[in-house]
Amino acid sequence: MSGLAVDVVIPRAAFNVVAAFELPAGRVLGIVGPNGAGKSSTLAAVAGLVAAQGSVRLGDRELLESPAERRGVGVVFQDLLLFPHLSVRDNVAFAQRVRLGGWRPARAAAQPWLDRLDLTALADRDPSALSGGQAQRVALARALASEPDVLLLDEPMAALDVEVRDEVRADLARHLREFGGPAIVVSHDRSDAEVLADELLVVEQGRIVQRGTLAELAAAPATPWIARFAPR
After folding, report:
1. Could you give the residue range(s) of every CATH 3.40.50.300 domain in the chain?
2. How many other C-beta atoms are found inside a 10 Å radius of the C-beta of residue 167?
3. Do 63 and 73 meet the contact criterion of CB atoms below 8 Å apart?
4. DSSP state of 150
5. Is residue 130 predicted with pLDDT exceeding 90?
6. Is 6:20 a contact under the CB 8 Å cutoff?
7. Which of 28, 99, 118, 186 is most buried, taking the most CB atoms under 10 A from its CB?
8. What is the torsion angle, in degrees rounded to the nearest 10, for the CA atoms of residue 228, residue 160, residue 179 and residue 211?
């Protein structure tokens, strides 16, 4: 898989978000920062969900020239956005339905992902019958079943009860390591950053203020917010 190179300006009412970074294939980058700093806007620009100026390159391919559905980007949203009228199996199969020419081949293509994320026993359930951790796995399986080149997760633990977060976080970390392409996780949670990401990109007021591992940020925080987020 190819690496990702981002160099964009994202217009917003309060301030523009300016983001420039590179991410090799097989690495997980955590984007952290205060509320409203521009973390999710950066993610949305890569996914093609907001307008951006500049460049988002995946290998030799310029993603800003492509609509969202043709970028090869899988997204797991904060509120998961599972289709309530579809079963678990059909939620996972949905992305392949058009490409493969119907539900039957799409469901067959979805089965390995149901197996891999331990969802086969839940395949005929409606999303309303799932726990928070189960729904999160369905959302991840749906993103992976689209065979993305880039995987983006926006606050993936936010919808989960506190008592199950540690278990689901560890499971998600394993799946991210197995993905193979570049992956970005937006979070405000220090535990997410520590477990899920190889390194962190800190965004404040629409600007990147520091990049490094959690240990590097703790050793030399560039701003007061980072000092609170990553204490020594």
Report:
1. 1-72+150-232
2. 11
3. yes
4. E
5. yes
6. yes
7. 186
8. -10
